[in-house]
Amino acid sequence: MKTLLEIEEAIQRLPESDIRQLSGWLQSHLDEVWDRQIEADLVSGKLDHLIARAEAGISANRVKHLDEVLDNA
Fold first, then answer.
1. 13-52: string of b/e by CB count within 10 Å (b at 16+)?
2. Separation in Å, CA 42 to CA 6, 16, 29, 59, 71
3. What sections of the chain are H helices per DSSP?
4. What angle do CA 14, 16, 22 make, to 5 degrees?
5. What are the sequence ranges of the domains in the chain?
6. Domain of life, per the record (predicted)?
């Protein structure tokens, strides 16, 4: 197995097009890791309090439409 330093040095020797391709792959991989974590958190109940809070806000009509929020940014 290569060390992180060895991988970094190998990346620095790659052509820019390969580095960009690698960057895209890494981002896709991180997105998949994030999705799996969110799914695991959802199944385990870690997000229940946030879901309940959002549902309470919706029920109490304390939410804004996304367009309204983005226009104020």
1. eeeeeeeeeeeeeeeeeeeeeeeeeeeeeeeeeeeeeeee
2. 37, 39, 20, 21, 31
3. 4-12, 16-44, 48-59, 66-71
4. 70
5. 4-71
6. Bacteria
pLDDT tens readout for residues 24-55 = 999 999 999 999 999 999 999 999 999 999 99
pLDDT in tens, 13-28: 999 999 999 999 999 9
Q: With a threshold of 0.90, does the pTM exceed it?
A: no
Question: What is the amino acid identity at position 32?
Answer: E
- Contact between residue 60 and residue 49 where contact means Cβ atoms under 8 Å apart: no
